[in-house]
Amino acid sequence: MRIVLLGLPGSGKGTQAEALARVWGSVHISTGDIFRQAVSEGSDLGRKVEEILSRGDLVPDVLTSAIVRARLHRADCRDGFVLDGFPRTVPQAIALDAMLQEAGVMLDAVVQLDVAADVVIERLAGRRVCSVCGATYHLRTNPPPAEGRCARCGGSVVARPDDSEEAQQRRIAVYQAATAPLVTFYESQGRLVRVDAVGTVAVVSERVRRAVEREEARS
Ligand code: ADP
Ligand code: ZN
């Protein structure tokens, strides 16, 4: 499967992308994770994007698209991918279309995870991540084990630096300004599938899986 997941920050893109990639045997590609990892390693890329991320702004399109292009060229993408957090702007979507055309492949679906803004704010406020493996938790709905240790790897579970209240608000505003037009872009081409993303992780995954398979059957 070749899938793009769209949705507000906190809509559950990362969680769903990981679960669905497992189901489909596809790789999960999160531009947010790529940037955060670069920051934690202190690489050239990390130094370039650190401030942008902490403000909640977008990394420039040309840089982001070049990173995704390189990632999609790796062999593990041959059997499919779930793109989480890319594209996030219309120019990025146009760049993605060009990359796929060049590779002679097509997207199976573009899925929009639908949640109201107030739900997203509650989810982001309680979000915690493992500083080692990136596993996500939520203080209310999926709390990390006692002492803030990750259930999967034992790493310490922390708040994401760009989950500060200012950065959250900024990310939501950026989504409305830069990413909402992208939703319209895919919708006007008849390529958008909307899925109600309020529910447990398993219920939402099942909805996405069904919606994508319906879309596949149609095309
Ligand atoms: P969320 O969906 O919760 O906002 P992500 O992990 O997807 O979080 O992204 C975190 C940050 O990484 C973004 O706020 C932005 O700074 C940067 N980023 C991720 N994907 C892109 C992209 N496609 N274009 C530009 N910046 C991006
Ligand atoms: Zn972990």
Described by strand count, sense and barrel closure, the largest sheet is:
5 strands, parallel
Radius of gyration (CA) equals 17 Å
- The neighbouring-strand order within the major sheet is 2-3-1-4-8
Unique ligands? adenosine-5'-diphosphate, zinc ion
- Please give the domain count: 1
Distance between the termini: 13 Å
Morphology call: globular
> CATH homologous superfamily?
P-loop containing nucleotide triphosphate hydrolases
Helices and strands, in N-to-C order? EHEHHHEHEHEEEHEH
CATH class term:
Alpha Beta
The structural class is alpha/beta
CATH topology: Rossmann fold
Mean pLDDT: 92
Helical run tally: 8
* Percent range for β-strand residues: 15-25%
What percentage of residues falls in helices of 4 or more residues? 40-55%
Low-confidence stretches: none
